[in-house]
Amino acid sequence: MTNYPQIRIRHKEELRLLGGHLWAFSNELLDLPRDLPPGTVVKLVRDRDGTPVGNGFYHPNSLIAFRLLTRNSDEAVDEAFLEKKIRESAAKRDLLLKWRNAVRLVHGESDLLPGLIVDKLDSILSFQITSAGFEAKKELVTELLQKIFKPTAIVEKNNSHLRKLEGLPLVEQLVFGSDPVTEIHDAAGTRYAVNVLAGQKTGFYLDQMENRARLRDFVHPGARVLDLFTNDGGFALNAALAGAASVTAVDESASALGRVDRNAELNDVKEAITTVEANCFDYVREVVDRFDVIILDPPALAKSKKDIAQARKAYLTLNTQTMRMLSPNGILVSCSCSHHIDSDELMSIIGEAARRARRTATVLERRGAGIDHPILASMPETEYLKVFILGVH
Ligand code: SAH
Fold this sequence. Notes:
The chain is of the alpha/beta class. It contains eleven helices and 19 strands. The structure holds S-adenosyl-L-homocysteine (SAH).
C-alpha cells in the first residue's frame, strides 16, 4: 500500500490517461495544492468516485501538472521501482549494443520514465532531466546508474530549455568519475570522438545514428555533398565513406567544426571533407555551387507553439534554397526536430518549397529517430524527429 497525497482529476479528463497518455494538464486537475513541492509523488484519482488512475509526479505551477509513472496505485515509486524501470528500458537496447557502443538507454515518456533521458556513450553515461519529479530524485538516479551500468563517468547535461517550464536551473557537470572523453562507433563502423561535457545536448546526437548510415545508400561515388548544420559531421563522414568526391560541412559552431576535423581524421576521410564556419541561412542565400546530395538538419526552429509561423517560414526558405542548389536528380535529406511541426506539416512545406524552386520532389523514404528513441503510440507528443529522403528532379 502507498500513502501518497491524492489529487483529483476532472470528470472525463482521466480518459486520455486511461488511453495510454502520461500527462494531465493543470486545467484538468481539481486540486492544485501549493504546499506540495514540485516533483512530489501523488496518487491521481477520478473526481466522481475516487477510483485511482495511477501514481506520478506532481507540479503545482507547470502546465504539465501530473506525469504518470505507474497505473498501479499500490506501487511505491521508490528505489526498487526506479531500478526495475531503468533496467527494463536498458534491456530493450541489448541487441543494438551488439553492433555499436553508443545508444539511448532511457527515452523519457516513451520508456515510461517521464522527464528522464539517459545516453550511453561507450563507458560514459550522460543524463538529462526535464521533470521536477526526476530532479527531486537526481541523486538516487545517479546512484542507480552507477550500480546498474558501472560507468567510468556520469555527466549531467541539464541544458534543455524544457527545464525552464518546470522552474529548474540549467546545469552541465561531471557528477561521477573523471575525464568524460571517449570514442564511439555505429553499426557500420563510423567512428566519432566524443567529449560528453563539450558536446551539444546529451553530448552527442544519437538520434540520427541510423539515418547517417542510411545516407550511404544515396551517395554515388564521386558525388558532391553539402552537409548543412553538420555538428560533429555525422552525415558528412558517412557521405565521404560512401565515396563522395567532396563534402562541405557547414555549422556556426567553431567547436563543432573542430570535432568534424577530428572525426574526419579518425575515419581517414580528411581529404574529402571541407568545413565552413557560417550561418546556414546566409550560406544557402549566398553560395551558388551545385551539389548532388544535400543534408539539411537544422536545430528545433519551433521550440514552442508561438514560434510555429516563423519556423514554417524558415523551413520553407531552407528547403527552397537547397532544392535550387541541387543538380538534376539530386538527393535532399530534409529533417526537422521541432515537436510543433509534424510530419504532414513538413511534407507540405517540402511540397511548397519544390513549387517555389520549380523542381519536382519525390519522397524516397520517410524516417524518424533511431529505434532507441521510440515514440509512445498513445502519446503523439513523443515524436519529434522527422527525416525525409527526397529525390529532387
Ligand atoms: N546533423 C547533425 C546534428 C545537427 S544539430 C548530426 O547529425 O549530428 C544542429 C546544429 O546546427 C548544431 O551543431 C548547431 O551548432 C548548428 N546551428 C544552429 N543554428 C545554426 C545556424 N543558423 N547556422 C549554422 N549552424 C547552426
